[in-house]
Amino acid sequence: MHLGIEIGGTKLQFGVGPADGQTFIDFVRCDVDIPQGAAGIQRQIREVGRQLVARHAIERVGYGFGGPVFSARGIVQTSHQVSGWDNFPLVEWTERELGVPTRLGNDCDVAALAEASYGAGRSARTVFYVTVGTGVGGGLVIDRSIHGADRPAAAEIGHLRPGLEARTRHHTVESLAAGPAIAHRVHRRLAEVVEGQIADPDAAELLALVEGQTARLTTRDIAETAVRGNRLACQSYREATDVLGWAIAQVITLVAPDVIVVGGGVSLVGEEVFFAPLREAVATYVFPPLATSFRLLPAALGESVVVHGALALAAG
Q1: Where are the beta strands (DSSP E) in 25-96?
Q2: Are both 2-119+302-315 and 157-298 of the same fold?
Q3: Is residue 298 predicted with pLDDT exceeding 90?
Q4: Where is 94: in which H helix or E strand?
Q5: Mind listing the pLDDT tens digit for each residue in 193-236?
Q6: What is the average per-residue pLDDT within 38-48?
Q7: For residue 97, with 0-12 CB atoms within 10 Å meaning exposed, 13-18 middle and 19 or more buried, which class applies?
Q8: What are the residue ranges spanned by the domains of the chain?
Q9: Superfamily of the domain at 157-298
């Protein structure tokens, strides 16, 4: 048996399964105590990991880490969400604490490996994976192997800068297409409606959800109203999918993958609100000779995709 571990900004997930990575015989999820930093997560890994290693005779461990890593050296470069991870030798630490050979990968990279191996891209040779949630990440898998695994980062589609006017590192695809950007555009429009006393039935629907307190309006609220056809919410999603579609078109133009797999919480609003306008945007921006050379598919492995990928990485 192998153990796959996902280290995220808000959650820590452990999955035990066979070398094929497709199924779990044991699964544990823990919330991350962010103020405790990396030390708190390490305590959780030590406690839960030792229990699972003893219970299932674990042979190997694989990690999907939420941030840039030096995979070949087994070192975390940094985390943008949890302090204390800078240049941390996670593989060496795990092998000492759990006594099991260990491999390390970036979370998006191992998620890409999972979708390419057992998910939506399993029939393809070249798979580009995109996740859209609180951020936008990517991973490229060629012949069941993660591209750029020897680099601190690769396939970082969310950090593309959309256009020559995007001159700062804060003006990125992620800053315009991720969940917080979708919410920000809606909040901004609601503020305009309230301040200008503008009659807008779609804004009124959103304001009624939170009794006029716009700060309480969540990304989930916006997603649910978009699915019901709220034009203001749908427009914010359309702006996000236009930017994301532009970015995916650049990937297609440069790499020509067989399949693009798109997952993450933002994509879960479905075909009409997310995937249809995304495909339309990709078609607008892609290099014409490649316009019919790929398939764009929803991810298949859900919230446990990184753990599936970590198992696949462990199996190596």
Answers
A1: 26-31, 60-65, 69-70, 75-76
A2: yes
A3: yes
A4: helix 90-98
A5: 888 777 788 898 998 888 888 888 888 899 999 999 999 999 99
A6: 97
A7: middle
A8: 2-119+302-315, 157-298
A9: ATPase, nucleotide binding domain (3.30.420.40)
Distance CA 89, CA 274 (A): 39
Q: 2-119+302-315 has which CATH code?
A: 3.30.420.40
* 139: confidence class by pLDDT, cuts 50, 70, 90: very high
Residue recorded with tokens 């690769």: 154
In whole angstroms, what is the distance from residue 22 CA to residue 18 CA? 8
Other C-beta atoms lying within 10 Å of the C-beta of residue 143: 9
Interatomic CA distance for residues 314 and 248, integer angstroms: 29
Q: Are strands 75-76 and 102-106 parallel, antiparallel or unpaired?
A: unpaired
**What is the model's pLDDT at position 75?**
96
| Helices and strands counted in the chain (H then E) | 10, 12
